[in-house]
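G.,

No rush on this.
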Amino acid sequence: MSTNVCWRESWRIERNCRVHGWLAFFLLLFVLGFPGNGIYANVEETVADVVVYGGTSGGVMAAVQVARLGKSAVLIEPGRHLGGLSSGGLGATDIGNKKAIGGMAREFYHRVWKQYLRPEAWTYGTRDQYLALSKGRADWNQDQTWWLFEPHVAEEVFRAMIAESRVPVVYGERLLGAGGVEKRGSQVICIKMESGRKFSAKFFVDATYEGDLMTQAGIGYATGREPNARYGETINGVQPHREHERYYYYHQFSKPVSAFLKPGDPSSGLLPGVGVEGVGAEGSGDHRVQAYCFRTCLTDQPENKVLISKPKDYDPRRYELLLRYYEAGFDKIPVDPLARMGPNGLSALVFLPNRKTDNNNIYAVSVDNTGMNYGYPSGDYAAREKIIRDHASYQQGLYWTLANDPRVPEKLRQEMKRWGLAKDEFTDNVHWPHQLYVREARRMVSDYVMTEHNCWRKRVAEDSVGLAAYGMDSHNVQRYADSEGHVRNEGNVQTEGNEVLQPYPISYRAIVPRAGECGNVLVPVCVSASHVAYGSIRMEPVFMILGQSAGVAAVEALEHATTVQQVSYDRLRDRLLQAGQILAWPPPK
């Protein structure tokens, strides 16, 4: 919401409350709040029982849960939108076993289903036409949930949940880059914004993808990949020799492509994006982070399509690897789901409603801007913004190249030209997603670190606050030149059988810091997990689950005047079960 709109809304509230005097006005602002607008724009300090920083899907669930339990919550979102990736383009929900998803997360997907029950939700075709192509028809008829949705529909659902719970949302406020967290002993007293505003609470939830509040609160964290030896893992660190395993080769060069500016000539230097450091020792740890991209929403519906233009800073060298790959014999559109085109076009299984896509990485060169995000997790706001702009430019340029460069096979160019940005999505951001897909940034290190042993159920957390239900999934982290001068990708992990792995519990201790570090902050997104385990946990439904559990835990600690570490797990478990969470697999009958 713009500043002008915020001021107009504050004046309207003041005018309506004038008959009750200024005291009633300020009590209304501080105690009751109003949903969905920046009502605190001209108030210096806000006090609540729980302050949630980050309007991601997990942040929304945490704030709503606190309110539903009768406590006051304020949700601070540095941007202008609620839902993070769930409303930022990731509409093809990643989850293995949907039956493991309970509580408010399942409520969200039920509400999405209800949205698409309305005939007016279908602008291009009907629901029956859509479902006729989909293998999900049985889910629609029996589950009363839907897991494929348009970005704007997701945000409408999040906003509705916030409004119904009367949670005040403060948009456009960002944590002060240094000195943004004030502590007294091991307790956070308040957080400070760049604007000078303060938010005080008894408990705080850091629900951001980056973990900035967590970090300033003095809570330990990790970035990059741990060496396999640290937690006795097998697929965490550097792994340059896995390209023949199932799943890995989908994101690897299947044909030789020279890594050098002048093919075959090392003295000419490496192409952009190919690292100069070398691949690293097998199983070793490093600073590298799995690649990011934007989950763009494209359509081939002519009246709803916006042409994807050539970026102003277009650099053809960034796409030389892709063009050489075509010249070596590659023959696909490396954009999922456009890569899955069959003789009858795309099926609804990989489409969102109303003839839209959720685009993701596939094959050796695709939408992932591999190796260009190492500075993001711990970077300041300016550094992150530069990385975000670079990712947008790269991906926009990739789409333009696929549609226009003569070195791309003609039939692929013609197919790519059919697609453009959806005109009715992201209307305040030139139809481009407002959220970068930050697959991994900081990860808290607490008394319980989730590892691949949890994912394989060789180690089972006894203090469950929800289930994860997806295979270990990391995108590539780097490109390097092999001994023959050919470019290789490294870092991809897709444990065989996302559909086979059993759901497994996430420990309560993985969302709370060590006792000596901070006693009143919960971290449901940057959870305590190794790199490879985080690759399984990092799915949006799981963030919703952990956000809700963090909200329940904050209220439990508040009501019993204790720290988050000293919460009685027996009481917490009972409250989580009452709230519909699924804590064990298979669920007790």
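When you get to it, here's the other one too:
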Amino acid sequence: MPRDRYRSEILDALNSAGAPLTAQELAARLDVKGGERRALDAALTALERAGEVVQNRAGALLVAKRIALLAGRVEGHPDGHGFLEPDDGGPRVFLPPAEMREVIHGDRAAVRVSGRDSRGRAQGTIVEVLERGNRRIVGRLHAGHGVLFLVPEDRRIARDIVVPPAEVGRAKAGQVVTVDLIAQPSRHAQPIGRVAEVLGHYADPGMEIEIAVRKFELPHQFSKRALAAAHALADEVRSEDLHGRKDLRELHFVTIDGETARDFDDAVFCRREGKGFRLWVAIADVSHYVRHGDALDVEARERGTSVYFPRRVIPMLPEKLSNGLCSLNPQADRLAMACEMEITPGGEVSGYKFYPALIRSHARLTYTEAWERLSNKTAKEHLVVLYEVFKLLLGQRERRGAIDFETVETRMLFDARGKIEKIVPEPRNDAHRLIEECMLAANVCAGNFVAEHAHPVLYRVHDVPSAEKVSALRAFLAEIGLQLPGGEIPRPADYAQLLQRIRKRPDFALLQTILLRSLKQAVYSPNNAGHFGLAFDAYVHFTSPIRRYPDLLVHRAIKAILARKRYDGGSSGVDWEALGRHCSETERRADDASRDVENWLKCYYMRDHVGGTFSGTITGVVPFGLFVTLDDYFVDGLVHISELGRDYFQYDDARHMLLGDRTGMRYRLADRMTVKLVRVDIEQRKMDLVPA
């Protein structure tokens, strides 16, 4: 009997029994004998790991739902408590510090809801640890009372890990190390670890990245099989690679990227045709080299995305591909997937087609170079035509009602030791937006193409805002005489219309932030729910297969459609739901790791500014205080609520402010504030401020 069939039969048998069954009793009920027992045991293990079946203390099996158990992932908190994030997507369950003593952030557990805490949240009791999530933990070794212990870098792991003398190796107190857990925590015992790797000292150059890589469990070393597969590829395009491709080498393609970019996965070209235009977006054909299920594909799927740190990248693909064969380097023949679009004088895409192509980039331009040439009227005709098309596409974007938030990007400038010299705003010009609009157009065409052919793919989904968030937003706006148009479910154009109306108000920063926070986070999903922020019915990521796995999947789907086939992974199959969750999680993991490194560097930089007074803007209001972003430095610090004065301050979530009972003193999101930097804690990535 196939293992997949056992799942429903096991659950049916346990439910109909009306009482717990041992594994032997279950096998007898299902009439499982001989060699079939191994498949039954494997199915049971999978069900226990998923939290659908649990064992009681007598070793008998029960259906988790029958005893009101929730299975999920444990999220730790630096203060010692935690939460269970249920697998079914329901409300999370609060876990008091006493319950967190036998689990660690990242573990999976089965929890019984036992009541409500003082804040009305569901509170749980851990019934069983289903799966341990942390096998190797990075941190700093400390000595105390003759014992070495590791303080984890991930503050969500709130328990120290004891390292016995026999398990220390050559490591010394003060060093950054990784430890393998050799004894898991319990209610009455600390976790115990063995030193696996000595990374060095905290202030060593690049240590912040080495820590983040391990803290967020980023795959950072390619397997031997993946490296061998990359090494076996030819160094240049071969004649046999050209079969079925359209030769576009005569078109004057260019790449336009940032100054420090090393991988170029998109090139553009445009020419006038009558009153309209024909626009080509050529994307590196990674799918030609990375095939479903091969060593390179397995590695790319696990990573999900490239991870970008200041001065270092952990690529999704080995360098031979990411900076070589699949990078559209100037004056080199490269394989590409082309999206050829017809653009009307009104900026609409009236027709498009996809096909495999051979291209040659004629120039590598930076955003600065391209904008200088366009501004100084020294740009060549092909760049001028691209700029004309950009303005048409931008006009169509505005008419469509896409939401366009104003944000400030920053760049860190480093000294020879790898530490920040200063942080500067990164100017955004029309060359950035030109490429952005061309990529958006190609992504939309790709989304429409796979949707029209009903082919499975991972869409980039940005769902409509929740009713609760919209209601809270409308209540806030009503207090200041503003209104978000639209009904219960507003349209993107309603947001865009309000943004346009408030753009010149002095409190624009506040209002834009609140509008932004009312929106959901974009995710990858096989279910096409459209992209709310961009106002598209179908949207996929097609344009960066070198650094994003979902884009590689889109290329495979498009090629399958062109060949009148289906991309389904063959005998191994593709679980699109699971793959969407995985790609969304790896994207968040990469963002968290990059942010962690940036915060470490900023804290290290600000150590020399302790005692200084700065002007800033309140960018976060929480029950325990205010987060203030300092002008000119672009770093955030916390003003704790206890520093705001001798008063009781009430947190008003709807109005995004703290209000003093006695003084009536009000601190609100986007208010200006003068503060003094009093303390920097590099290990916790925290800066403490007080009102000046």
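Residues 576-606 form the longest helix (31 residues). Residues 162 and 192 are 5 Å apart (CA to CA).

Enjoy the weekend,
O.
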